[in-house]
Amino acid sequence: MALRPLRNATITFGLVNIPVRFYTATRSEDIHFNLLHGSCGSRVNRKWWCPKHEEAIESGEMIRGYEVAKNQYVTFTDDELELLENDGNRALEITEFVDLEQVDPVFFEKAYYLGPAPGGGKTYRLLATAMKKQNKVAVARWVSGHREHLVLLRPFEEGLVLHTMYYADEVRDFSAIDLEGAEVRDKEIALAEMLINELTEERFDPLAYKDTYRERLMDRIRAKSEGELIVSETPGQEKAAEVVDIMEALRRSLEGSAKPAAAKRERAAPKRAPVREAAAPSSKKKRAS
Fold first, then answer.
1. Which residues pair with 138 in a beta bridge?
2. Which of 134, 149, 216, 287 has a CA 20 to 30 Å removed from the CA of 62?
3. Nearest CA-CA partner of 19 in 145, 119, 127
4. Is 192 exposed, middle or buried (0-12, 13-18, 19+ CB in 10 A)?
5. Are residues 149 and 165 in contact, defined by beta-carbon separation less than 8 angstroms?
6. Secondary structure in 3-state letters for 63-87
């Protein structure tokens, strides 16, 4: 089924303008629950409450406000905010091209497919092909949703994908993490590298992974909907983490990973036709059944 475009925009770099359309690139398959009243099973509704008038209000009665001082707000209507996002500001303005490895994935937020809008097919393909050939990605600015986004465009399949990104001041400083000042020895590093090599694949295959928790939950939902009695399982007592010598743990991990790796290589190797040998005469007598 063809994807429906979400919005239109224009990629600009130099004097080149490329009309494009946004498409949803990903979707969450998480299972969502509704909140019910436990005594009757009715679905509950969320109410917006005004403490001054002591009454519930509708969404249409609300406006947006930014607090500039205690209980003092600068207010905006949706129309006022929409004026700040005029058509001239909806351009995806490319500011620079960089190598993809220069951008850490911690900055990535959401992903959208970009497709050409009517009349933009040739310039769209030209940009995507040139970026792919040069192995470059484009950093751009884009105003939408009441904010200016930092975005990254990169070649994907036969076209382009857009990633909205966090700004540097939105990514927390990693130096705030307590690393305990632990030291590692050369032998430990060598064993860790051996384990990494044993588990290394030439290419990441996303189809090899699935959400097993979601499958278990759906099985339980189906069982409950069919009237099956679900027996609550008493969770076992959580054991304290066992302190194991790191060298011994690495050796055990290597022993455990060697068997699956060997089996995988055996499955991947081309099978040869079995060589038939002449049957040797049996020296054992058959037992009477």
1. 97, 153
2. 149
3. 119
4. middle
5. yes
6. CEEEEEECCEEEEECHHHHHHCCCH
Instruction: Collapse the DSSP code of 251 into the 3-class scheme (helix H, G, I; strand E, B; otherwise coil) and give the result.
Output: helix
Task: Answer whether 64's CB lies under 8 Å from 75's CB.
Answer: yes
Q: Is residue 46 part of a domain?
A: no
Give the CATH number for residue 157: 2.40.290.10
Rounded distance between C-alpha atoms, residue 11 and residue 201, angstroms: 37
Q: Please, what's the b/e burial string for 24-43 (b: 16 or more CB within 10 A of its CB; e: otherwise)?
A: eeeeeeeeeeeeeeeeeeee
pTM (2 d.p.): 0.63
Tokens 């990104």 found at: 165
Tens-digit pLDDT profile for residues 155-169: 999 999 999 999 998
Query: Which residues span the domain enclosing 137?
Result: 13-27+92-169
Eight-state DSSP code of residue 43: B
DSSP letter for 102, please: G
Q: How far apart are CA 98 and CA 137, in angstroms?
A: 6
The top-scoring range by mean pLDDT among 55-64, 73-82, 107-116, 217-226 is: 107-116
DSSP state of 261: H
